[in-house]
Amino acid sequence: MPRDRGQKVVASNRKARHDYLIEDTYEAGLVLTGTEVKSLREGRASLVDGYGFIDGGEAWLDAVHIPEFNQGSWTNHPPRRKRKMLLHKAQILKIANKIKDGGYTLVPLSIYFSDGNAKVEIAVAKGKKEYDKRQALRERQDNREAERAMRSRNNLGE
Fold first, then answer.
1. What is the pTM of this model?
2. Within this chain, do residues 81 and 122 fall inside the same structural domain, yes or no?
3. Best CA proximity match to 60, nearest among 8, 108, 109, 112
C-alpha cells in the first residue's frame, strides 16, 4: 500500500506566533492510537490550549484536542490526553535545559502528516509582553501601508 508523499497540514496554531517569541523549532513524531490517526486524517484537531513538557527524559504533548473518530466504537480515544513526542535524546536535553533556565515554554505550532507519518512542529518560545504584541501589530500594519502606497504609486506612474 503506497504512503502519502509530501506534507499535509492538519492543524496550525497561528496564535502562538502572536503570543510567543519563537526561539527554536523542532519536528517530533507522535505516538498515537488508531482512532487518533483516523481523526487527524479527516483534518480534525485543535492546538489552541496545547503545550509540551519534559518529564523523566521524555517529551510529552498535553491538552491538544483530537476529537473522537466518528466511526469509532469502544476503541475510541479520549480527546485530550498526554501524547508522547518522539525526539532524539540530544534534542530533549537541549529543550529541557532551555526550559529549566526559566522564561521558556514548549509550544506546538502545527500537526501535519509527512510521508504518511503524523508529526508535530514544536517551538521553544518565550512569552511576549502586551507592548511587544502591539508593536508587532503596528509594524505589520506599517509595512502593509507602505507596500500599498508603493503599489498605488507604481500604478499611477504606468
1. 0.78
2. yes
3. 108
